[in-house]
Specification:
Blueprint: H1 4-33, H2 37-63, H3 83-110, H4 114-143, H5 146-156
The structure holds magnesium ion.
Length: about 160
């Protein structure tokens, strides 16, 4: 059985993952509006992945006899000036998410909940990949000329 404290913290992470999902969907709409269909595709896939994280956490809480809850999710921004601004924020946001996961691992350790620590290590490992991927995209977009930006857009359009 999961502790109430950890249950509440994981419910907070469910809301944070949903906020991330909305953030990337909003970015996707913005990029689509600016004619970058490939960036929009990548962000839409990223948004779906974040929603899946929320569901994975909820399923885990339920399995441990806790009560998963969807609480209020704050509004996300709707405008970005450029792909550079978008992907810089994506990278910064992923770094923030990594910190949140680290804090949850620490709490699970304090609560002496080995199963939850084990569950969260999967997210820790995934965040390493998320940070590396989004840092690389953000650096490429930052350095790109207008023509190179269109090539990157078409490359990210292939994300399945
Ligand atoms: Mg996530």
């Amino acid at each position: 059985m999961i502790s109430e404290k950890l249950n509440a913290a994981l419910n907070g992470q469910i809301a944070a993952e949903m906020w991330s999902s909305n953030l990337y969907l909003s970015m996707s709409f913005c990029m689509q509006g600016a004619g970058y269909d490939g960036f929009a595709n990548w962000l839409k896939k990223q948004s779906a992945e974040e929603l899946d994280h929320a569901i994975q956490i909820a399923d885990y809480v339920a399995k441990r006899g806790g009560k998963p809850q969807v609480s209020k999710v704050d509004a996300v921004p709707v405008e970005w000036a450029s792909p550079k601004e978008v992907f810089n924020q994506v990278y910064e946001h992923e770094c923030k998410v990594s910190q949140m996961i680290n804090d949850l691992v620490r709490l699970a350790s304090e609560e002496r909940d080995n199963a939850t620590q084990d569950f969260l290590w999967g997210f820790v490992r995934e965040q390493v990949e998320e940070e590396a991927t989004t840092m690389s995209i953000s650096e490429k977009v930052a350095k790109a000329s207008d023509a190179a930006l269109l090539i990157l857009d078409s490359q990210l359009g292939t994300r399945a």
